[in-house]
Design a protein that fits this description.
CATH architecture: Distorted Sandwich
Radius of gyration: 19 Å
Order of helices and strands: HEEEEEEEHEEEEEEEEEEEEHEEE
Helix content: under 10%
Number of domains: 1
Number of helices: 3
Structural class: mainly beta
Shape: globular
Oligomer: single chain
Distance between the termini: 50 Å
Number of strands: 22
Strand content: 35-45%
Amino acid sequence: MSILQSLNQQHAIENHVQLREIADGVIIAEVSNQHALANIALQGAHIATFQPRGEEPVLWLSPNAKFAPGKSIRGGVPICWPWFGPHQTDSSLPGHGFARTVPWELLATKAYPDGSTSLRFGLIENDTTRTQWPHASTAQLEVTVGKSLRVELVTTNTGDAPFELGEALHTYFQISDVGNMTIKGLDGCEYLDKVQDFARFTQHDGIVIESEVDRVYVNTEADCVIEDKGLKRAIRIKKQGSKSTVVWNPWQEKAEKMGDFGPALHRDMVCVESGNALENVITLQPGETHTLMAEYSVEKL
């Protein structure tokens, strides 16, 4: 029996979940229920797409995204774990950690009476990950696909010493045009601006993007709302266990230099990321579990 056949035998649910190989060595879980459609790659437990029925896609996936073993996927919900941004002491290690480029195991699937579907994934350790992250721990991702998309990243310290954890759900949202949307919910928050060498500023009013933006908003647990006049909708980002919100758009010059991005595609997306970064990194004590949760839902404008 092939790996794919075995996965379907264990985890496929009629009218809910089917496993499919979309490229050599790349398997996705296709979710199709009464509320929404979603695709989740086992590599990185990466949610590539989410589209409520009757709506435009909520997540943005680059048309040039590469689905290949060991490669990160441009778009959807990449998992930044167990650090965010560059590694603090070793610049040779991958930015945003290794979780998004290594295989995860599909542990369980479940269909609920309300028509929603959940899938639970576990990070698979290997010699490389143990070298990069020598802390005894587990990481699991619980994804619930319904009228909204709920994502829970659960980290447990299984060792006998504390460690520092940086993390984020690096979510790409689909918008009509970057010039036709405003991000609300961060008024009055302080942020560190990577474009200006991490200078600290305070946000006033909504966020309007007119050039490259790469900001870490700190000490905020607030909901964010992307108001999109073009699609006449708002995407609400509700979160728990997160004190940082990252807002990112590479703008044209940087996007054109990324092989999996391309010219003009920066206008179709914005990243609003829920996480714990910079001064909000978490210290996890032995035996302690931390859950980072984000839920994405659509509202009419």
